Automatic annotation (TrEMBL):
InterPro entries: Nitroreductase, Nitroreductase-like. It comes from [Mycobacterium] nativiensis. It comes from the Bacteria. PANTHER family: NAD(P)H NITROREDUCTASE YDGI-RELATED (PTHR43673), NITROREDUCTASE (PTHR43673:SF2). Gene3D superfamilies: NADH Oxidase (3.40.109.10). This is Nitroreductase. Pfam families: Nitroreductase.
Length: 218
């Protein structure tokens, strides 16, 4: 079994899964049980996760893929410049690895469309939180999610968190029976990555620690 540092370093987002390689339910249950150990404000455990496989997943993918054709997602704008730079760099790395040129709008759109197929992952997840909760509780959901991703990685499973599937909360809600009181936060793909898809082998760089962390001593 890999040690903790290896698991953290091995976890990465996969954007093409093997659709016919199912996720063993016992591995998924083990990972979920570990993720439940995540800390949260007043231990309210604010995370809710809906997991769709089989016919339910197929119907969700069909509905999202149809919707996205008639109602294209709005480009994410208004980011501070420093964040924009990182976003551009990520796009260059991911699309570059897929062999899609910057000016190839159709190629980018076709690659983007796979988001709404959950990148073909056999387990399609949606992460939710009660709509009356706030930022501090979203931190708890994030802690749950990262713990889950690491536990999946440790078990040889691959994943990708997605904001894209949450851009159509009405469809997701309808197809996964998500109650009104929950806010749809993000999607989650779980499965085995396709090793033949070059973008799956990317390791996205990070800032030096000093760019994000300040030590104060006087
Ligand atoms: C909240 C959140 C939303 C994300 N949304 C998407 C998405 O919609 N599509 C996608 O391809 N990747 C998405 N990602 C994956 C990020 O692009 C990825 O985590 C980041 O570039 C770092 O790469 P790594 O996960 O491979 O280390 C998302 C990640 C998070 C945490």
């Amino acid at each position: 079994m890999p040690d903790f540092d290896d698991v953290v370093n091995q976890r990465h987002s996969s954007r093409m899964f093997l659709p016919d390689k199912p996720v063993p339910i016992e591995l998924l249950n083990e990972a979920l049980a570990l993720a439940m150990r995540a800390p949260s404000n007043s231990n309210i455990q604010p995370w809710h996760l809906f997991l769709a496989t089989g016919a339910r997943r197929e119907r969700l993918v069909a509905a999202l893929s149809a919707e996205v054709q008639v109602n294209r997602p709005k480009a994410i704008g208004g980011l501070p410049e420093s964040h924009n730079r990182l976003r551009r760099e990520l796009g260059a790395l991911v699309y570059g690895a897929m062999g899609v040129a910057r000016e190839d709008r159709d190629g980018r759109w076709n690659a983007q469309l796979r988001n709404w197929e959950f990148f073909r992952a056999p387990v399609a997840g949606i992460v939710c939180m009660h709509r009356d909760l706030g930022f501090a509780d979203a931190v708890g959901v994030g802690a749950f999610l990262q713990t889950l991703l690491l536990a999946l990685t440790e078990r040889g499973l691959d994943s990708c968190v997605q904001v894209s599937t949450a851009m159509y909360p009405g469809i997701v809600r309808e197809h996964l029976d998500i109650p009104d009181e929950l806010r749809v936060l993000c999607g989650l793909c779980i499965g085995y990555a396709d090793p033949a898809f070059p973008a799956n082998n990317l390791r996205i760089p990070r800032n030096p620690v000093t760019e994000n962390v300040v030590f104060l001593d006087s």
